[in-house]
Amino acid sequence: MGSGELGRLRMIAAPLLRGARLTTVRASLKRLPPTMARHLLIALLLVVLAAASLLPQPERLADTRLQAALGRALAAFALARSLDGVISVAQGTEVAIEPVGVGVTLAPGQLLDPVNDLVEQFSSLLLLASASLGVQTLLLGIGAWWPLKAAVAGALLLLAGCLAWRSSAPAPLRWLVAILLLLRFAVPLSVLASEGCWRLLLAGPFEQAQGELASGGELLAAEAEPPPVEAEAPQGWLAQARSWWQDTRSSLDPAERLQRIEAAAAKLTHRIVELIAVFTLESLLFPLLFLGAALRSLPWLARAMDPHPA
Fold this sequence. Notes:
Layout: H1 3-17, H2 22-30, H3 34-53, H4 57-90, E1 95-97, E2 104-106, H5 113-143, H6 146-165, H7 171-224, H8 237-252, H9 255-296, H10 298-304
Antiparallel strand pairs: 1-2
């Protein structure tokens, strides 16, 4: 850097040291050649990134979001396992058609076989989602490792010094800085971006589907329970005849109970499919999408730190 360039740098630094207004600093920057202004802007951004890389806030925010997502996945897994137990019990329910002590027995709980298979697949997906969140937690811990933080900050400051004093930086140094920046910030930014997509697109459907899934399980549990047997009180022959007729009519027409079970099965199927889509997007597709975008941005990031782009 020549004496003329040093003089221009002093001209810019003097208003800053005197606490001048931003307009004065802008006027000083406009007097610089465009190439030098670009050098100084990139160097300033690198210094800011070096300071940000030492802060603990990025991994703390990301860890909070990961723990919340993991809690949702584990809660849904517990709900799925309890629903699997309810369906297993409901599959053993029987409706007897015995108007005069002789008849046939139906098993309407067999309608729940497809739902039971879907619940098992949903449980497997939730385990995979939990594993994905656990891997992201481990990667987040690697990015927060203090030697990596120090390496990132040191490399950024070295690159900023090269750009400020030599007006250039070797390509290996720029690529090293780009790789270190991805190691430090790719996972936190991916987690925060996934959380933003969750709140914007998935939170409402998740709450609705989870609530209706719980209520559908309670409905199936109620259908699986046998009717309570009440002690018969002494009654006249007219009351006995009426009771016998009501029992006979209900035993001959099990369609109402079958319809309730079928409706509950259809409702559970729709909600389980919605939850499968929600957890697939939140725990698998969104993280892979944002991490893939970060990796593809590596060449662009290395070129952006070049003060003399081709």
